[in-house]
## 1
Amino acid sequence: MNKPDKKITEFILKHHVLTLATSKNNSPWCANCFYVYSEDENAFIFTSDDDTKHIRDVKENNKVAGSVVLETSIVGKIQGIQFTGKMYLPENELKKKARKLYMKKYPFAKLMKTQLWVLDLDLIKLTDNRLGFGKKLIWRKEL
């Protein structure tokens, strides 16, 4: 598996909330989720309930998009990623690994009855103005 540039991975690891964009019947929706990032899988891991709109959407169309951003009003410090990927419920060993990663970062989640989801990334675009105005690094999954 080709790995994203180190700058992309470092940015993702510094943050913890992603915006997830879904679509069902040509009707878009966004949700914010606490995540952990699995470098081995190049995937976001997060929890969400089955009765949320974004999960109902994903059950019919698992192709999603989203972003993680650094909130700043200083143009020279703008950083963020945009991504696309496919969401699924992990099984077997991946489910165990994903749960361990998520619970390590968010131990309070053990008290919640919720579903663990994996977002397998196929495209990541990092914009980082610290590297030069409008500088972009793009990673694509090899097919």
## 2
Amino acid sequence: MKICFTSDEPKGLESVMSYHFGHCPYYVMVDVEGNKVKNVESISNPFAAEHNAGDLPTYMKEKGVDVIITGGMGPKAQQYFVDYGIKPVTGAYGRVKDVLEEFLNAKIEVHEENTIPIENSHKNEDKENEEVERIKKENADLRRQIADLKSRLSRIEERLDL
């Protein structure tokens, strides 16, 4: 099974998940056999700057993706993936390795309400663009912090289980 994760960085399993599949800068492709990771590859999103509806699902189908895991994705995009036989999983956050483990151990529940709506409004005014960029950077930093905390919590839970 090939699982694709949206990512803010090209660090493989150590990457922080991105909250939007279409405009994320990277994808982490993980080949899994049973519950064992066979291959991990970080690739740039060729459609990060601009894409038409259906471009990314077509691209993922060509890459042999079976599941795409992301923070958020609109209902139209989800339907495109379903039409291609690719299972969309939304509402994920943290580091790819932690989300992968949750997915493989069936700890991620997939519900329609897990989809995080993403506003995609583009304004031409410089001030608003600067503010958007500032918020994006803060958001990315917060995602890294959450991912670190989630990893720490996992390690503490493992110790408690021993």
## 3
Amino acid sequence: MSALYGTYARSDLAFEQGKGMRLYDQHGRQYLDFYSGIAVNALGHGDPHIITALKSATEKVWHTSNVFTIPEQERLGQRLVDATFADAVFFTNSGAEALECAIKTARHYYWAKGEVNRYEIIAFTGSFHGRTLGTIAAGGNPSYLEGFGPAMPGFKHTAPGDLDAAKALIGPQTCAILIETVQGEGGVTAMTSDFMQGLRALCDKHDLLLILDEVQCGYGRTGRFFAFEWSGITPDIVAVAKAVGGGFPLGACLAKSDVAASMVPGTHGSTYGGNPLATAVGNAVLDRILAPGFIDHVNQMGRKLAWHLQQLAQKYPDYVLELRGKGLLAGIKIAPPVRDFVARLRDDHHMLAIGAGDNVLRLIPPLIVTEVEIEEAIGKLSAAFDAIKAETASVSAVE
């Protein structure tokens, strides 16, 4: 019996090696990775540049504390500022911590202005912002809240896509609107440009901050550095993680200078956040993400994946019910139970994918994916649907 908490329904599969788009299990079997450790392994497995950076960093100091200057952290922070809307960065170990920082930053911004009662945040159903008590309250999913006592106050929820409903929730205590630009866990729902522009306009009109959760959809995954860039808006705060460390625990909260100004010594902190080892890896990841042509490649592969999925939907209309997502964060609402389908892909076709809410199959390959590998994945999906069709026909024949 495992000594670990039973919080995961783990497969017996254990991976020992990885190279590019492939993972190899304890028996040497090869798997096509369209899972990326839930969008973390953006550069695939065994990227030489990251390995070199990590090896070099391990020969230096690994950890000090944020009471000292950390040159790699300073460098990564400045590079993110130079590449984005932001003026200030706080480094974390995870996406949930990045969201916690974002929430605290928004609330403290108004407190520092003397508006101490402005702490409520409007959020959206179908969201996933993390597993801390604060972020499950922000997500509002009853299944994640159950058993943990009253939800932390200060969040109101409505369905995404309805601007009037969001507007109706604005009151004298509202300080911000929080949304995933592309919902991941909730069902791979991409927000429209009109809706995102509408939220920005609401925030401007009512003096609210716009907080975006791009933990899963940011860092190039949709074919832009951040997914919000497709809608032409500028947020006030953005939380990122996952791909930021390429497999090493690292996240960040990015904010405009005036918004972050009140976060002075004593308001927030992290023992490990942005330590020398993590930010050395983060800089190596950013080298690759910001390299000329890299995000253009992601954009091209996102279009290729969308085209191939359209063909798949036409071929299997009884099984493929709806296509969702953006770029290389793709969702397929399917008829078969998604948990069973994920297991079938893994066990019978050696392809790794992940489920999401609303019976959606999530495809989130490393950003280095090629069209050849996209076609291979489509072939495996087709084979899985064909097997289901054959099994269904066999059962019908018996009956």
## 4
Amino acid sequence: MMMQTTLWFGLSKPQGCRVSAAEWQQFLDSEVTPRFRAGLSVYDASGQWLEEKGRLAREPSKALMLIHVPETEVNDAIKTLRTRYKQRFGQESVMRRCA
């Protein structure tokens, strides 16, 4: 049985600038691809969400779709991706949806 996980990575940094195309590609190459060599899809997205401070935020995003087996190792790899992106780019969250 396979499952689909989609992650949404916001591209706005807290300092007011954006994650550049080169920075996103470097994250994809160094963090995502080594963990998901079997394949993945990336889409440009535009989203909005409620910040911790209660303010509505709108920003461009990248949606990463993974098709994978439901294993603990895969779940751990996804958690690691979310944590590293938040740390690297100052994000409050990386949204995750599993189906």
